[in-house]
Predict the 3D structure of the following.
Amino acid sequence: MRTFSIIPLLAVLFLAGCGGNETRDEGPGAEELYNEANRALNAQNYPQAIRLYRSLAVRFPFGRHAEQAMLDMAYAQFKGGQNDAAIESLDRFLRTYPTHPNVDYAWYLKGLVNYDETMNFLRKMLPGRASDRDQQAAHQAFRDFQELIRRHPDSRYVADARQRMVFLRNIMAEYEIQVGEYYERRKAWVAALSRARYVIENYPGAPATIDALKLMARSYEKLDMPELATDTRRVLEESYADLMDSEKREGLLSRLWPFD
């Protein structure tokens, strides 16, 4: 009787052992999967890299590769043109691993993703109109880089972030001028004047300051305020005399990006 009762127990243990071996043999381990994802990333096969990083995160959510895999997946999404997905991955990474050794890179990469959206805005801005959504990306990129500098002032990404912030500031100022000139064409002189003032007050030193003063002077004239128009033109001539001639001014991109 005791012999027969032992047989079912042995059978259960045997099957459990077999099941455990099947689980271990289901696919590559975490390190192998991570290396395979990196190879796909280096080969610029971004869809494959994203799939492998996501698979690693699902199968080994608490392994030593899971944290870096989430960050690498965000980069692959960015390079693959999936900016919204990259931002989502980076936000999740920043919430989940706020003390990760590479968290400064996460902030920097988030800024780059929004910066890329801003460059798309710039390409559209040159021949035509820009949308508010595009401008929001510029503001968000500026805040991301600002947060990187605030949290990690010694990061190796700070120098590049500062340069990009200057460029973004110039872009945002240029956008405000476009909006102001749109109001001017609609003969909404007060709104145009308001935009010009906003540029001067919030983006001092930006190349768009010259255009802001010109727009301000024209708006004052249309509003029948000749004295203020004269004063504005005097400031323009005294402060920017060498740049008044449009033929002598650098191209738009050169002015917006004042770095070698």
In short: The chain is about 75% helix and 0% strand. The two ends are 90 Å apart (CA to CA).
